[in-house]
Amino acid sequence: MLHLYHCVSARSFRCLWMLEELSLPYQVHMLPFPPRGLARDYLTINPLGTVPLLLDGDVRLTESAAICEYLARRYGNGQLDVLPDDPEFGRYLNWLHMSDATLTFPQTLVLRYRFFETAERLQPQVAEDYQRWFLARLKAVDHGFTYGQFLCGERFTVADVAVTYALQLATHLGVEPKFPPGAAAYWQRMQQCPTFINALKIEEQAALRQGISPKPSPQIRP
Q1: How far apart are CA 132 and CA 119, in angstroms?
Q2: Which domain holds residue 120?
């Protein structure tokens, strides 16, 4: 049985979605956000205090994109990843790494300096600057569909899961009205994915069952 440690609206949602996409048996353990401050016992399992954490027997992974790729490679039978001999391999890798390094990272700074620092350490200008930084990089998604409805043409891959989360987080941060047309259309398409919808339902149900707020983390703070 796979075990996923997850917070509502965190990057670990990518992993939850992948587990649903692959119809794998798993148990999801919900934590308050940020767990390193609000769930100190979790540090005995993951000293970083971050999510995701995926346990698969003796295998431990803590990076969301790596977990998604691991699940696809180990359990996907070629359904969701792209192999080196595929013409789309380079494009696939670029999107997969861009999802975190370019599209999610700046939003974590918005989260930190707009919501989660103490009052005296909040930095509204820093948050605004990194929100603009994110929107500037979102042009890559806006122009990313030279053919097909997915990032690798007509094929849904791990890259779509990873990049869609960045758009989901931006929506929680109130940035969706500023999405350029191509990115906005892609976000609308991805929200219709049955496994995306199901993962959201499972997240909410698991949170309520385990005594965790089902609200996205940016909405927890005033």
Answers
A1: 22
A2: 89-193
How many separate domains does the chain show? 2
Residues of the chain with pLDDT under 70: 218-222
Q: Could you tell me the CA-to-CA distances from 90 to 77, 83, 159, 211 in Å, in that order?
A: 20, 9, 11, 42
Q: What is the pTM of this model?
A: 0.95
Give the C-alpha separation, 88 to 156, whole Å.
12
pLDDT tens digit string along 65-106?
Answer: 999 999 999 999 999 999 999 999 999 999 999 999 999 999
Q: Are residues 127 and 189 in the same domain?
A: yes
Strand, helix or coil for residue 154: coil
**Hey, what are 173's tokens?**
């941060």
The answer to whether 183 and 141 have CB atoms below 8 angstroms apart is yes
Distances in whole angstroms, Cα of residue 26 to Cα of each of 23, 61, 205: 9, 15, 15
Closest to 7 in 3D by CA, of 33, 43, 28 = 33
